[in-house]
Amino acid sequence: MRLLPRSAARRIALVAFLAYAVAMLLLGSAVYWATHAAFARQIDSSIEQATLALLSEYRDDGVRGLSEALATQHGPGPIALGTALFDPDGHRIAGNLDTRAPALGWQRIVFLDPLEGPDPARAQTTALAGGYRLVVAADLESLESIDSTILGLFAAALIMILLVGLGGALLLSRYLRRRLGNIEATAASIMAGDMAQRAVEGPADDEFDRVAASLNAMLDRIAALVANLRQVSADLAHDLRTPLTALRNQLELMRQDRGVGMAEQVDQAVERADDVLTLFNAILRISEVEEGNLRKAFTPVDLSALATDLSETLSLLASDGGRSLDTAIDPGLIVTGDRELLAQAIINLVENALHHTPRGSHVKLEVRHANGGVALEVRDNGGGIPEGDRSRVQQRFVRLEPARATPGHGLGLSLVRAIAEAHGTCLFLDDARPGLIAALTFPERSLS
Amino acid sequence: MRILVAEDELDTLRFVERGLGELGHNIIAVANGEDALHHGLTEALDVIILDRMLPKLDGLSVLKRLRAGGVTAPALMLTALGRIEDRVEGLHAGADDYLIKPFAFSELAARIQALGRRLAPTTVTTKLHANGIDMDLLTREVRREDKAIVLQPREFRLLEELMRHAGEFVTRTMLLERIWDFHFDPQTKIVETHMSRLRSKLNEGFPHDAIETVRGVGYRIRTV
Lengths: 448, 224
Hints:
The complex is a heterodimer of chains A (448) and B (224).
Chain A (H helix, E strand, L loop, with lengths): L7 H65 L8 E6 L5 E3 L10 E9 L3 E11 L5 E7 L1 H51 L15 H51 L4 H30 L7 E4 H18 L3 E6 L4 E4 L1 H17 L6 E9 L2 E8 L31 H11 L5 E4 L4 E8 L5
Helix pairs in contact in A: 1-2, 2-3, 3-4, 4-7, 5-6, 6-7
Chain B lengths: L1 E5 L3 H13 L3 E5 L2 H10 L4 E5 L7 H10 L6 E5 L4 H9 L4 E4 L4 H13 L9 E4 L2 E4 L4 E4 L2 E3 L3 H12 L7 H9 L9 H14 L7 E4 L3 E4 L3
């Protein structure tokens, strides 16, 4: 048999409720015993005081005086006291306490109440000269009634607490289940395929709302990654179809032509296969850089020398394409990194600028100190990239509208981004008014 | 040339064996490290091609043992894509060249050719001559049939590389490695751009192209 309910919410509620009940019982018992003990002490002290008063009568006037005092002594104190004087034979000769002679000292006795019949009482019996005995007793009825009042009160309180606790526990468990049910239902609908479903984020910003918010943030991230993956797969398939289809048609043509211009056709076929391989190499290279275990091979690289060296080649490329490349390279700037990756980043940034600007545009490659680091910056005076697209173009295969018609795979900037991240920095794109600024800022390596 | 090929992917092994065989080489094909070591130690070889990953004994260990055993034949290591550490390890173990898999056959063939030539006694040359072109590496003068040609430093290095391997194909990748020290393909036309400048300077006023280009293979200066 299960002792605890399966639902965690119910378990929490049940445990809270049991804790209340136990606390209530402990409190009730403590109050009961403390009150009982205090009242019993008070009874004893009343008996003692009455005994002392009677004994002083006895010392003054002997048995006769005591008997008279007993006959008259009926002060309506807070506690009803009964008294009796017994002769040496054990006969009651004075007092109203209808009982047989008890033994000496403190006793619990039973006396005959004229109204209620036999009643328990607390009695102190004192020996007098000549075998006489003085008994002073207090009816325990008042103590019992206080005890029963306290017990009754606490029993009622306990029942109240049980009811309220049980109700509260049920409410708490329903509340918890409702709040968690929100998240559970979201998870269930996502599992069922509704990726757009999100948990309701309440206005309270409490624990549940925060869990719901984290869950939603996580779902958004996953959804973005899934969408990106889907997009990448689709783009990859698309980009592969084009050269592969061309290759296939080429081969078909070669079969028909049987040798006519074969060498040239084979060359074309090889070139198309190389296109496909180039694409794959670019993708794998990005993954390799993104994996990020290149850092241990990092060495000091003279970025100024590297940029100067490459600019020689790149300016030839620029002038072949009817554009110009200027440089502003401060000498001797050293960064920590991978020389070949940095070279690749410079090549890609400059090629990107050459590729996406109209003929006659100017591209400038700069390496200089900036904000305590070394900035590598490529700016052009072409069309630029709209602000909203600047982070998108750093993703794989993303090509903006005017560029879609030109050859390329949209991997250049994503490789630069991956290289930047491998070097602990990021690719920053900004508006050159007009044109685009693409910048990487590296921490400078001190020469010491 | 007598070439040992150790490669555990049988498709690649067959394709290399067939391709190099058609070029007139004598191939010993093995598929694991122990066989590679055995043949490497017992046969006279001109070039050794070793896959980095081989069953029984990996390519690096095979090469180290061959070198320890006094085998000096040039070795080409085949490695998986992008393992930069592999290249460095391979060179430390005594490899003379490396190639990233999968590779184009023409690339392998060009590199084997270049490695095989290293066997020839290397004299310190300061003058190169081929196909009517003369280069003086000390004065950095270039002449084609007595016509002086002025080259930029990078064009000079390109021509030097082609002249040193006159008669052989030099691939784009080999030029990137040797002249730019890039062990990756920067996916850009830097080689082509410099090559076209070099070519136009060399060919100006001559009816024949001094440099032969085969698309997808590489460049070559004819020896005749």
